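#struct-pred
JK: can someone run the complex with adenosine-5'-triphosphate? inputs below
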Amino acid sequence: MNALELQSVSAGYGPYRALDEVSFAVGTGEVVALVGPNGAGKSTVARVCAGLVKPTSGRLFVGGHDLTGAPPWQIARNKLASVPEGRGVFARLSVAENLQLSFGRWLGSEAVPGALEEAFARFPILADRRRQRAGTLSGGQQRLLSLAKVLGNAPDVVVADELSLGLAPAALDDLYQQLGAVAERGTALLVIEQRTDRVLALAHRAVVLDRGVIRFDGPPAGAVGVLDGVLGGPRPPARSGETAG
Ligand SMILES: Nc1ncnc2c1ncn2[C@@H]1O[C@H](COP(=O)(O)OP(=O)(O)OP(=O)(O)O)[C@@H](O)[C@H]1O
Ligand SMILES: [Mg+2]
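RT: done, structure tokens with the ligand placed:
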């Protein structure tokens, strides 16, 4: 069974069609990289998966359930967690408060202390800084916190949109080590990235998206040449009637 599947999903914003019949799947426990240039539609895929953008056609399956058009809470209840673009933390709340708030929503108040201890065991840097306001954490620490927040719901699949954006190599190492640990516990991952080196090393499979269309779906090594072609070279119109993105 697939943890996540898009079948011929088209979606957009007003008249603009950002995704054009996109189909791909993330198997149970599988790590899939979703890569492509700026404006390709990667974040739109993430928003469709999270229920924030409704497909205009096609279907979304989470854990085998058809959740096309379902609201975000229902998708989350089906064990899909999504780490949004940006930092996804409450800047004025402490690290511990951020985690408590997020865990309380999914687990109920009685389970929060246990989940908190588990998160601190998994992310020692967050334990060290549990009383610090999240807004004053470094960029890399904030990404780790946003990842830790969604793991409290014990998701079967995590969709992470550009978690590594702007991070220096050491912070990237930490982040990818954590993503690897999440994958090792059997959680499926859809990791969206523009920088491809790390994600292609982690992923079992890669999907290349360009101007709303899937250009490649296969072994990570095979994605590199496709991406080079997409990023360089002449760019004929992807489809008729397209407006500038
Ligand atoms: N809220 C919106 N309203 C109108 N158009 C949008 C909106 N969000 C995204 N778009 C457009 O949809 C297309 C796909 O955007 P999307 O954010 O999915 O791309 P992306 O692959 O995530 O790009 P990046 O790598 O820059 O994050 C772009 O042309 C973008 O301008
Ligand atoms: Mg994006």
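RT: quick notes.
The pocket of magnesium ion (ligand 2) is lined by residues 42-43, 85, 162 (CB under 6 Å).
Residues 169-184 form the longest helix (16 residues).
JK: thanks, will look after standup
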